[in-house]
Every structure is written in C-alpha cells, then in structure tokens.
C-alpha cells in the first residue's frame, strides 16, 4: 500500500493523473449507456464491492517507488476488474473534507479506500496521517495515566477517611485517650497496673504511637494505678517534724490516705505537731500500709477574728431568728428561759450583747426566751382547807385532812410542791397535795354494839386512812353476850396518841345469863 501511495507524491502526481484520465476515456468509449440492473446484477455488484473492500489497506504516505509499482499492477489487474463488473458500477472514493470527517465520526463508519490499480476511474486519492498511530498511543497513554491518578486519589482519600494517626499519649491522662478514641472511632482497651513512678490514670505504654490505625481497630494502652496500696510504709516520728516536712514526706511516699488536718490551738504554735491517729484501730504503726487511712493533726495557731459584725436587736423576735443569725456569723449562742407576763411564749425577752455592738466570730452571747405567763404555786398555809382549791392560781389541788398530835384541828400541815414554784405553758403540771390537821384522834366506845368482823373497817376508815397509826389487839373472854361481840376495850371515849394500840375483848358467848351477875358495863 505504501508503494501505491508513493505514486501520488512529488513529481509523479501529474503523470499518474494523466494515466487515470486516459483509462477513464477508454472505458467510456467501450461501455454503452447505463441501463437499469436486475436483481441478479445488483447481487453481483454487492459481491464485487465486498471483494474490493477486502483488498482495501491503509498505509503511510506514498513514495515514488510505491506509485510506479501500483500503476504496473493496476494495468495487469484492470482486465480482471472490468470482467467482474461494468466500469460505471465501480465505487469511487470521494475527496475527504471536514464535513465528511465529522459525519464519519458520528456514524462510526470506516473510510474505505479503493486501490488505484483496481479502479478504472480514479479522480482523487486519500492521504493518511503518518502520526496517527503515535497520537492514538499517546491518547491511550493519557487515559491510562488519568485512570491511575484517579484510582490513586480515590485510594488516598479512602485511606485518609478510614485511617487516623495515633498521637503519643504516654505520660498523659487516660481521659485524653478516651476522648480521642471516641471522637475518632477507635476501640480502646485499657490494661491497668501499679507503677510507683506514675500517677494514677496516667498512660505508661501504648501499642501504636505516631502511626496510623484503621478506624474500628483496637488501641491497647497501659494505664497506671499509682503506687501499690498493699505496700508497707515505714512511718517516721512526726512529733519533731514541722507541717512542711510532713507534707513533703507524704508526697514522696505517695501516702495519699494519710490526711493532714490543720486546727486552731490556743496553746500549740502554728505549724507544730498536735497528734497522729490511724482510723482503723486494728492497724498499728508497725504494720501500716499505703492503703490504710490515718490523720495527722497540725496547729494553725490561735485564731484571731476582727470585731466587725454588728449585733442586731432580737427583742420580741423568735428564738429561731437569733440562732439562724448566730450560725451564719459563727457566733455561739446560749439560751436561757424565763416567764413573762408581757412577752409571749417563744419570743426573746432580752440579749446579753446590746444592739449595734460590734462582735467577732466565735464570740458568745446569751438570749433570754419567754416561756409565757407562769403559774406560781401559792403558800397554802395562808388558807383554810375550804379556801385551798380556789386559791390555786389555775393549778390542780387535792386537799386532805389527817390526824396530827401536834397541829391543832384545821391548821395547815404541808403541801407537795414548794411555795413559789413556777410552771410555764410547756411544762407538765402536777396535782398539788395540800394537808390540813384533824387534831389528835378520838377513840369511841365500841362495846356491846360492834362485832369483831367490823373492827378492821372501823380502824382503817376512822383512823388509819386519816393519818393515825392506831391499831388493835383482841383477846377472848367468857360471856353471856353473843359470841364475837366486843365486850371490853382498854381505851374508849378519849383522845389517844396517833400510834396507840387498843386492847379489845371479844365475847365467847359460852355462859348462860342466870349464871352471870347483873348485867353492867365494865370499865
């Protein structure tokens, strides 16, 4: 094909053109005018076109040798071509232009080139681009390079989205790691161990550091639990140590369960040791461990406050108001109570520190709170037994009269509650027992009309219940009087001491009346 195209380059182009024109002129003289072809002629024409198309080839730019060879081959083959079909039935290629080129691109139909040696009427030829193949290779090279770049960018973007760089967390707080893993979608596994050199919850080691890890993967870190609490700690003598020295020792030994408490003291200088206590009494200083709780007390010195708190006037206000103010201002309050005819129960009557007086914290004050109107126990010796209840000032009174050898009848003997005792509204009030005198006991004559069975009741009701400890003794005598009747008394119809014992004779009833002497009362 290259030889054929060479006939159309350079000086051979005009010669080749003339030869083609002569061949066309000869063909036109031999062939009759065009007639309509039957179905068979059309079929043979299509077959010849296919054969011609099969011989089409593409090649580089024509040279002189290829053009000469193609013309010679065309002469030998012209006869065979004319035998296959009529010259006017040959298909000639038309000159390509931009319009035809665009149409061929749109319809995607290949351009058919008919060799000059197979055509009797070749008016024009197609000139091919020798750089076409290089451009095509270059085009596919760019496409391939673009695909590689796109895939690389996609993979890079995917990698960036699915991977995250793990910072160096060693020496940092565990909370920072938890926050970072939560925000970046990384799982976290924490393994904790005791480490004296690291504070609690500080990262000791991590499996991945300053490298990228895929999201969803697990990051393993070792976190410190601090110093071992089971480790024994040798306690020093804190007494000669100052507060600063004690704090330094605790920090060095990481004995965090040993708390330092500073207290004010009026006797121990500030910063000096006060006392040491282990909370668990079963733990001794010799077997103290880091986990054991203890308290170390140091003095803050004497507390001095400035008197800058003005004292309010609490008169007429409630006790709760005063105590609340005192608690807020760190004032100690002592409460006393007193009855009052003017101030109601629960209200303040007076205060020990006057209004607007400046006081300091920790000072003390006394307030007097009213218990209301008091009920005062009167002096019942000034009243008779009949007047006692009406003079009780609202108190309950129980009046009694008892025998008394020394106090005359009707006179006051005693009262159960002391004179002048006060009872407020909130107090439980007792029943006051007031006793007046019956004087000395008087024994009646019980002979001939009293039975032995009535003596108990008579002596209790008449004497014993009224304060006289008068008792009796019985003996039995022969008598015609009905059996069990009192026939004799050692004392009767007279005043007797309150602790007397009366001898009483009881009739046996074993004698007949005629055997007795005339009936008369025996003294």
TrEMBL record:
Listed A to Z, the keywords are: Membrane, Transmembrane, Transmembrane helix
Query: One Pfam family this chain carries?
Result: PASTA
> Which portions of this protein are annotated as coiled-coil regions?
none
Does Membrane appear among the keywords? yes
Q: Which residues form the PASTA domain?
A: 301-371, 372-437
Bilayer-crossing residues are 140-159
Q: Where is the composition biased (Polar residues)?
A: 1-10, 44-83
Which residue stretches belong to region Disordered? 1-84
Top-level taxon of origin:
Bacteria
Q: Which InterPro entries match?
A: PASTA_dom (IPR005543)
Keyword check for Membrane, yes or no: yes
Which SUPFAM superfamilies does the record match to this protein?
Penicillin-binding protein 2x (pbp-2x), c-terminal domain
Q: Basic and acidic residues bias located where?
A: 12-39
Query: What are the boundaries of the signal sequence?
Result: none
Q: What is this protein called?
A: PASTA domain-containing protein
Organism whose genome encodes this protein: Enterococcus haemoperoxidus ATCC BAA-382
């Amino acid at each position: 094909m290259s030889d054929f195209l060479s006939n159309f380059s350079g000086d051979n182009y005009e010669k080749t053109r003339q030869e083609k024109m002569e061949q066309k002129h000869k063909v036109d003289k031999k062939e009759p005018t065009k007639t309509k072809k039957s179905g068979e002629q059309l079929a043979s024409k299509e077959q010849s076109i296919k054969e011609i198309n099969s011989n089409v080839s593409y090649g580089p730019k024509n040279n002189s040798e290829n053009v000469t060879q193609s013309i010679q081959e065309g002469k030998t083959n012209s006869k065979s071509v004319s035998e296959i079909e009529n010259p006017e039935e040959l298909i000639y290629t038309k000159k390509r232009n931009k319009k035809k080129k665009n149409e061929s691109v749109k319809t995607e139909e290949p351009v058919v080139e008919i060799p000059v040696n197979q055509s009797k009427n070749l008016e024009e030829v197609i000139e091919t681009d020798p750089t076409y193949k290089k451009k095509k290779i270059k085009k596919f090279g760019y496409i391939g390079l673009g695909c590689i770049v796109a895939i690389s960018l996609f993979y890079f973007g995917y990698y960036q989205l699915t991977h995250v760089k793990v910072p160096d967390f060693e020496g940092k707080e565990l909370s920072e790691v938890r926050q970072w893993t939560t925000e970046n979608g990384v799982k976290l596994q924490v393994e904790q161990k005791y480490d004296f050199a690291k504070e609690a919850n500080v990262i000791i080691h991590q499996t991945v550091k300053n490298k990228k890890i895929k999201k969803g993967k697990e990051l393993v870190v070792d976190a410190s639990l601090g110093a071992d609490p089971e480790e024994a700690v040798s306690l020093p003598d804190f007494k000669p140590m100052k507060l600063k020295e004690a704090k330094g020792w605790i920090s060095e030994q990481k004995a965090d369960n040993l708390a330092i408490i500073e207290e004010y003291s009026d006797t121990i200088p500030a910063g000096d040791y006060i006392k040491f206590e282990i909370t668990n009494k079963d733990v001794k200083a010799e077997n103290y461990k880091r986990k054991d709780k203890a308290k170390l007390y140091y003095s803050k010195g004497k507390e001095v406050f400035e008197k800058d708190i003005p004292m309010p006037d609490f008169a007429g206000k409630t006790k709760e108001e005063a105590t609340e103010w005192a608690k807020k201002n760190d004032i100690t309050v002592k409460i006393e109570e007193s009855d009052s005819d003017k101030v109601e129960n629960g209200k303040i009557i007076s205060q020990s520190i006057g209004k607007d007086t400046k006081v300091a914290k920790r000072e003390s004050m006394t307030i007097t709170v009213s218990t209301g109107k008091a009920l005062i126990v009167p002096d019942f010796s000034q009243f008779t037994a009949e007047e006692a209840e009406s003079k009780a000032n609202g108190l309950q009174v129980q009046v009694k009269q008892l025998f008394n050898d020394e106090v005359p009848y009707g006179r006051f003997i005693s009262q159960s509650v002391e004179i002048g005792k006060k009872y407020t509204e909130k107090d439980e009030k007792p029943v006051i027992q007031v006793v007046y005198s019956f004087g000395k006991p008087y024994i009646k004559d019980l002979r001939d009309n009293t039975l032995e069975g009535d003596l108990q009741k008579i002596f209790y009701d008449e004497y014993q219940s009224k304060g006289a400890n008068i008792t009796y003794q019985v003996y039995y005598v022969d008598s015609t009087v009905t059996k069990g009747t009192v026939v004799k008394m050692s004392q009767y119809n007279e005043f007797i001491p309150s602790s007397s014992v009366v001898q009483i004779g009881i009739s046996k009833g074993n004698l007949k009346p005629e055997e007795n002497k005339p009936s008369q009362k025996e003294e």
